[in-house]
Amino acid sequence: MAPEPEQLYSIANPLVTIDQLSTSGSQLDGIPADLESSLRFAGAQLTQAAGILLRLPQEIVAQAVVIFYRFYVGSEGGSFRINALKDVSAASLYMTAKISFVPQSTRSVTNVYAYLLSPSSLLRQCSTSIADKTKPDPESYYLSEGSYQAARNTLLQTESILLRSISFITQVILPHHIAMTYLQTLGALPPTPTPKSSALAARTLAHLNTALFSSQLLYLTHQPPALAVAAIYLAAREVGVNLSSAEWWEVFDVDREELGFLVVGLGSCEGWINGERETWAERSCPLTVEELEDEIKRRRVEEG
Are residues 222 and 262 in contact, defined by beta-carbon separation less than 8 angstroms? Predict the structure, then answer.
């Protein structure tokens, strides 16, 4: 990933290169591009769900999702056929929480993932069976002492592999706080909130959170200030707030071309997510290496 100038370090992230976007370790291992996108989405969902169960702040969860994405980009990055997304997701969340103000124990993380990977978890049930959901069976996600030690070792080993793969670059600057600062600068967040200003702030944050699940990896290809400006622009258009007649985004060093691309990207996230849910409505997306191999074999049989 390309480093950023030192003066911009406080609000800039390392971005992926064109070569890293064009080829990944998973594609080199024979995983189709559409399946790779689905696996990324499933990993982000798994990380988000684990963060909620661990009661972690959204900031920590979002940073873990970005770290998860970084691991799988580029030809020298991880491969879903070798590094199970469930393990990388757990390691990303564990590592991100460890260097924050809310560190989590290995037992807490392994217990949460044991539940999310069990048949009792909603993530493991297709949408057609959720209506017939029975009471969760605690035995399906119980970790014995031996199972815990094995899961703990896998977690720590994966964390080590993850750190080496991302060159120990754990910094993730999120655009959420930047967006709120920009809204205040534009005078859109008065000292006494109004219904429209509250709606504008809420929609801005909603777009930034949804962008975490984008198939275009927006958090890896664009800097936080640009993401913040695009989310504000789109939210203002939806809420009906006129920010300025001038090209205000240029004040924040974002040109019209980049803004247009990001607005389209943010606006398409919801439709793509709904499409993914329809794709996996009858079965759950593979979360383990074994399940992934079964899915690849199934596709080969269908293709003849």
Answer: yes
The label of the residue with tokens 């074994």 reads 290
Give the helix ranges, DSSP H, for the chain. 18-22, 25-28, 33-53, 58-71, 85-98, 106-116, 127-130, 145-165, 176-185, 195-210, 218-221, 224-239, 256-279, 289-303
What is the gyration radius of the CA atoms in the chain, in angstroms? 20
Cα torsion 34, 39, 45, 47: sign = negative
Cα-Cα-Cα-Cα torsion 206, 208, 214, 219, nearest 10 degrees, comes to -170
Task: Tell me the one-letter amino acid at 19.
Answer: D
DSSP state of 140: G
Q: Which residue type is seen at 6? A: E
Which residue from 121, 57, 61, 113 is spatially nearest to 90, judged by alpha carbons? Answer: 113
**Residue 107 to residues 94, 146, 165, 284, Cα–Cα distance (Å):** 11, 12, 25, 26
Tell me the CA distances in angstroms from 273 to 37, 40, 99, 212, 278, one per residue in order.
11, 12, 30, 11, 9
pLDDT band at 38 (very low <50, low <70, confident <90, very high): very high
Show the tokens assigned to 120. 């009792």
What span, in angstroms and rounded, lies between the C-alpha atoms of 135 and 148? Answer: 24
| CA–CA separation, 93 and 213 (whole Å) | 16
Cβ partners under 8 Å of residue 179, min gap 6:
204, 205, 208, 227, 228, 229, 231, 232
Question: How confident is the prediction for the chain on average, in pLDDT?
Answer: 90
Phi, psi dihedral angles at 78 (to 5 degrees)? -70, 160
Mean pLDDT score, 65-86: 95
Percent of the chain with pLDDT over 70: 93
